[in-house]
Amino acid sequence: MLVMSLLSTAPVLAQGTSLGHFDVKAFADKPVYWPIGVTFNGKNLWYSQPSTASPDLFLVTPTGKLVRTLSITLPNTKGAIAWDGTDLWIASFAGESGSVTPQPFVFQVSTAGSGTLLKSLNLTAIFDVDQECGVIDGLAFDPSTGTLWVSPDVGCNFFASNICSIGFAYNIDTNGNLIRKIQFPFGVSGVAVANGNLYVADRCEPTSPTRGFGLIDKVDASGNVVSSFPIAQLDPKSWVEAIAFDPTTFGTCSIWAMQPYPVGRFTTQGSFEHADVAAYGIPCS
Known about the structure:
Blueprint: H1 2-8, E1 18-23, E2 38-40, E3 45-48, E4 57-60, E5 66-70, E6 78-83, E7 88-92, E8 105-110, E9 116-122, H2 124-129, E10 136-142, E11 147-152, E12 167-172, E13 178-184, E14 188-194, E15 197-202, E16 215-219, E17 225-230, E18 243-246, E19 254-260, E20 275-281
Antiparallel strand pairs: 1-20, 2-3, 3-4, 4-5, 6-7, 7-8, 8-9, 10-11, 11-12, 12-13, 14-15, 15-16, 16-17, 18-19, 19-20
């Protein structure tokens, strides 16, 4: 009832209004890439960073204060993450330095204590149809259906002459069976389910006045864009990896976005560490 009260009295904000952000302070010791995953557990935020060392999962407050870390060992480095109300789902960031297998996986993990692996889903058969790799940027749990949405990294589209010309989101059950697939005419990284609506992170450079670098799109069941808003450029050349729904923190509905940005030379370890996490207001319907 408290949540309903908050939402019923929430201010009406323009979609994409900036609600808050913080710089990611806790980094994995040996990063393979920038921080990737972000998800909201009803109070705080989990985020992930692909790494060859532990810890690589971090729980922080909505203002960025570190609460705890999780160091569970999985067959792959860690990419996108999602919260189902009880457990954490962790997607692979395979195919990069330090990963054991290039296959795409999603793991269900209990965060109690030191963490327990509950289930492993191998999505190779689903990804192979579209020649996608095991780097997963987007993962979301849909509480209305009890299913997951998964989206591969834009860089997986190596088969395309223009990686920004195609993207995918796969709806799977919690046993790894494909329910349906959406193909987009633009590159997609993160995916989130908010109020029963699907949102995707549109990663690519502008190709028209309505498509752009760092957009978050609300899409319909066929992948058509219903509405969009741009991310704030909190640091030079930031983009969106993962996104996550948050209905409570700000007294209105919002989407959190993991926004990495390069610092120094790409070949140095330091360039793999930096990111902001930002929240944007969306309609509560």
